[in-house]
Each structure stands twice: as C-alpha cells, then as structure tokens.
Design brief:
It is a single chain. By secondary structure, the chain is of the alpha+beta class. The chain has helices at 3-21, 27-40, 86-99, and strands spanning 45-55, 58-70, 74-79, 103-108, 118-122. A 5-stranded mixed beta sheet has the order 1-2-3-4-5. The protein is globular, with a radius of gyration of 14 Å.
Length: 126
C-alpha cells in the first residue's frame, strides 16, 4: 500500500468521524477514534511518536512528537481549533523533512466542514 492509498483512508476516516461527532471535541478524542477507524481498515497506527533528529552532528532524541504515523509512511497531525494557523502547516512540513516521510496531513477537526480542515503536505516527490 502506497502513501496515497493510506492518505485516502486517513481522509475517509476523518470525514466519517467529523460527520458523526462534529467539531469541538479535544484533539485526543479525535486521535483515539481516528486510530481505531484506521486500525479497523487494517492499517498500523503509532500515536504520540517521539521523533529524534540530528543537527550539526548532534542527535536530539526527542525533537518533537508526531501525533500519528500510519503504516510507517504517512504522518498525521491533529488540531481542534477554529482555524488552522499557517504555522501549523509549516510545522508539518518541517516534521516531514526531519523524518524523511513524504506525505503528511494536517487535520483540523475544529472546522465546521471537515473538507475545510484538511491540508495535504508533500516532502519531495511521491
């Protein structure tokens, strides 16, 4: 299964959850439910993954935590805010570069319509 296939499942599950529950719950609730939905579809999901990186020859064991990494290929960052800030999108792209992953999604469950809360980011070429 490639990144685009996984990404489609992530988006499908996010839309399904948002349609059923609406906006306004805590990010942690959406994270648990999205994980369950993806696992039911046969995907492997890691949550709150500490990510190490190197800078100027020095290794930092926990530079940040990825909300979710799906099938070790797609990063998912979750928000539950009225509007995602451009900094959130930049943050995701930085995370992708540091991990070497190629595809990531910023999912903002705080939007009135989930389609307005989905941002797809690509690191390099898919």
């Amino acid at each position: 299964m490639n990144e685009n296939d996984i990404g489609q499942m992530v988006v499908d599950c996010a839309v399904k959850l948002h349609k059923a529950l609406g906006p306004g719950l805590l990010e942690s609730v959406y994270e648990k439910l999205l994980t369950r939905c993806l696992e039911k579809r046969g995907l492997s999901v890691q949550r709150q993954v500490p990510v190490a990186f190197e800078f100027e020859g020095e290794r930092f064991e926990e530079g940040f935590r990825a909300d979710m990494i799906v099938n070790e290929k797609v990063m998912v960052e979750l928000k539950s805010v009225e509007k995602a800030h451009p900094a959130h999108k930049k943050q995701l792209l930085t995370y992708l570069k540091l991990t070497g992953l190629k595809l990531g999604y910023l999912l903002n469950f705080g939007e009135a319509l989930m389609k307005d809360g989905i941002t797809r980011s690509i690191n390099g070429e898919l």
